[in-house]
Backbone:
């Protein structure tokens, strides 16, 4: 199941592609060579779960072969774990892409032409050197999963607020001080990961993310939680560990789907015990989440 297995690229394949990429002229012989090189790449594509797929992961690539951008039929492209420092504008020619994996490179930016990938639904750009995201990415309104974790990002452009189909957003391990305003417009979000940034507050607009089930903000410098957070009654996992919380909102008992105090990072529930909580909250929590909720509920 899942389609044919991909053939691995040999060093000879990559050397041939690099050689053809370095040609400067555009004569008849060169165009024939370009076409031939594109066919060599095309032989390594597979049909995987109905998608035309190509993996160039872990190939030691410093640059992308020019012939790659000839494969307009590609729907899934994996360029992860290479040494890419940039992507050419030609990325925009692959306008049938549904999944693009750029994980684990040295990218300092994404080309504006990424906005031409109107069918894109999944983008992994984690573990790079991105300090910003192009406004044009907001044109990828079909995006459902976006991971920008482990970069140097301080914010997001307002244009990303148009991503109403986005369900999973990972911004962990960046340099974000305030949750970007555009995030509060992403009404379809189910999963929001902001761990290990520089957050000090969560805005009241968090209540707009009515579909949110998982919110992870551990490892920041958050002092207080807004009471509007407690209106997200679909929350099943709330991780606020390793912050500067001393108290909790009285309305927290409304988060009935959290179910229990959680310890393991993957457990559903409320992760909060690793905070400088004051008495009596600290003591009440020794009885578990139900004890806390009973304490907070109005009599």
Residues:
């Amino acid at each position: 199941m899942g389609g044919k297995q991909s053939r691995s690229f040999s060093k000879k394949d990559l050397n041939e592609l690099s050689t053809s990429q370095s040609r400067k002229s555009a004569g008849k012989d060169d165009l024939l060579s370009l076409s031939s090189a594109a066919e060599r790449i095309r032989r390594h594509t597979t049909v995987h779960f109905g998608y035309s797929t190509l993996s160039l992961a872990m190939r030691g690539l410093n640059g992308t072969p020019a012939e790659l951008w000839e494969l307009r039929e590609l729907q899934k492209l994996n360029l992860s774990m290479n040494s890419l420092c940039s992507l050419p504008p030609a990325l925009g020619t692959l306008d049938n892409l549904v999944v693009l994996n750029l994980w684990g490179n040295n990218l300092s930016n994404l080309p504006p032409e990424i906005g031409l990938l109107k069918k894109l639904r999944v983008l992994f750009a984690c573990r790079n050197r991105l300090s910003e995201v192009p406004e044009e990415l907001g044109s990828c309104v079909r995006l459902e999963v976006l991971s920008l974790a482990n970069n140097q990002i301080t914010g997001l452009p307002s244009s990303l607020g148009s991503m109403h189909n986005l369900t999973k957003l990972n911004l962990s391990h960046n340099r974000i001080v305030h949750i970007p305003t555009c995030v509060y417009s992403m009404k379809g979000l189910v999963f929001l990961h902001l761990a290990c940034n520089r957050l000090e507050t969560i805005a009241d607009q968090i209540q707009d993310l009515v579909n949110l089930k998982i919110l992870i903000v551990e490892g920041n410098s958050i002092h207080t939680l807004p009471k509007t957070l407690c209106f997200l009654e679909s929350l099943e996992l709330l991780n606020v560990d390793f912050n500067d919380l001393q108290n909790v909102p009285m309305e927290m008992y409304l988060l009935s789907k959290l179910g229990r105090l959680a310890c393991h990072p993957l457990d559903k529930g409320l992760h909060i015990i690793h905070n400088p909580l004051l008495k009596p909250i600290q003591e009440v929590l020794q009885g578990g989440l139900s004890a806390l909720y009973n304490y907070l509920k109005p009599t």
